[in-house]
Amino acid sequence: MEESKQQNQEIIDETNEENQTADEEAEVVEESSELEQLREEKEEAQNRLLRLQADYDNFRRRTQKEREADRKYRSQSLVEELIPVMDNFERALQVEVDGDASQKFVEGIKMVYQQFHSALEKEGVEEIASQGEEFDPHLHQAVMQVEDENFGSNIVVEELQKGYRLNDRVIRPAMVKVNQ
């Protein structure tokens, strides 16, 4: 009997050891799956962080470009208002005058015109070259077509109204006559 108790005890011990081993293996598998899950969560969080950082960098670059464009074209509305004034100055200077007093008056107008012109240039306003140039629909507005043997095809023959651009943006295209 003693022997059978001992055998039963051994069987119980073996069973307990097997159960304990199985429990330990289950714990290892469970810990391994938890570890894998934590790794996946960490990787997902890192990916979200990288995307968020990229979005922020894009936002920063976009706002910087917008600020630069605002700075570059801040005077556009003022320039659009002043261009007709330039046209009127140029028309006034084309009038021929007689007499010493009239001549002095015209010289004063020329000085004001030059100051006005240089102030616009400082802001980045420049005239669009047109006469003798090839017609460019982005810079010129063709209002007439003529046939002139002295000019090649699609060349601007005459400028009817000056065109202006602010930095690289066309404010007003030049009105021109174009050779066919």
From TrEMBL:
Residues 1-10 have a biased composition (Polar residues). One of its GO terms (cellular component) is cytoplasm. It comes from the Bacteria. It holds the Pfam family GrpE. Its main location: cytoplasm. One of its GO terms (molecular function) is unfolded protein binding. One of its GO terms (biological process) is protein folding. CDD domains: GrpE. InterPro entries: GrpE, GrpE_CC, GrpE_head. It is found in: Cytoplasm. Residues 11-34 have a biased composition (Acidic residues). Signal peptide: none annotated. Gene3D superfamilies: 3.90.20.20, Head domain of nucleotide exchange factor GrpE. Keywords: Chaperone, Cytoplasm, Stress response. Residues 1-44 are annotated as: Disordered. PANTHER family: GRPE PROTEIN, GRPE PROTEIN HOMOLOG, MITOCHONDRIAL. Homodimer. Participates actively in the response to hyperosmotic and heat shock by preventing the aggregation of stress-denatured proteins, in association with DnaK and GrpE. It is the nucleotide exchange factor for DnaK and may function as a thermosensor. Unfolded proteins bind initially to DnaJ; upon interaction with the DnaJ-bound protein, DnaK hydrolyzes its bound ATP, resulting in the formation of a stable complex. GrpE releases ADP from DnaK; ATP binding to DnaK triggers the release of the substrate protein, thus completing the reaction cycle. Belongs to the GrpE family. This is Protein GrpE. It comes from Halobacillus halophilus (strain ATCC 35676 / DSM 2266 / JCM 20832 / KCTC 3685 / LMG 17431 / NBRC 102448 / NCIMB 2269).
